Amino acid sequence: MSDAHDHDEIGVGSVDREVDPATVGPQPGDLERAIAAQVRAYRLATGLSVAEMADKVGISKAMLSKIENALTSCSLTTLGRLAHGLDVPVTALFRGVDSDREAVYVPAGHGAQIVRRGSRSGHLYELLGALRGQHKRMEAVLVTLTEASEVFPLFQHPGTELLYMLEGRMAYGHGDARYEMGPGDTLQFDGEGPHGPEELIELPARFLSVTAYGDRAEG
Fold it and tell me: N or C: which end of the chain has fewer CB within 10 A?
């Protein structure tokens, strides 16, 4: 029921976020600090002293001390030696470099109201936040239906959709199948198949719709 291409308008409640390009991605010194923390942690886990580890990997004690204190940048050769001596993949030494990831927090009742083909009086669609760009692989919408309709729209869209019934009862169709859903019931289906509510049995009907799109390039 959640169709990203059906969004015509976003109502009050959405929050615009601006990101300073200068703060995106690793900053100067982040790489050295991440490597320092990982090397120290792995060395301590082995129980070896700085001198013992330095001797094991074939670098000086002073160099290892500088690495663990983020005072120098490692060559690829040195990183390879450290990884071999610590018995970890080289990539393990980079953990934490890009730890800042986008997150969207939506307080209760503050989701953006969206208008789509199924929107009408008594039909409320509330977008519960969405990541942007290449990270927009999922869309969560809280749907509240408070008035019955004679005709319900059918939806079709890319991705896989999951419905989780929160309140009320309804009959939901997908293709030729019909499912009667009550609180706690879940329905997961291919979004390419025509789907949508067929009958509202007990109002208000309230459910969570989550659509996963997988990897996609569009923003």
Answer: C
Question: Residue type for 102, please?
Answer: E
The pLDDT tens digits of the residues spanning 19-74 come to 444 444 445 577 888 899 999 999 999 999 999 999 999 999 999 999 999 999 88
Q: Cα–Cα distances in Å, from 127 out to 51, 61, 81, 186? A: 56, 55, 49, 19
Distances in Å between the Cα of 207 and the Cα atoms of 110, 211, 214 are: 17, 13, 22
- What residues contact 152, with CB distance under 8 A and at least 6 apart? 118, 196, 197, 198
Instruction: Report whether 116 contacts 2 (CB < 8 A).
Output: no
CB 120 within 8 A of CB 47: no
Q: What angle do CA 73, 75, 77 make, to 5 degrees?
A: 150
The rounded distance, in Å, linking the Cα atoms of 146 and 196 is 16
The tokens describing 183, both together, are 């609180």
How many CA atoms lie less than 13 Å away from 96 in the CB half-sphere?
A: 14
With beta carbons less than 8 A apart as the criterion, state whether 165 and 182 touch: yes
Q: What tokens appear for 128 in the block?
A: 């519960």
Helices (H) and strands (E) in the chain, counts: 4, 8
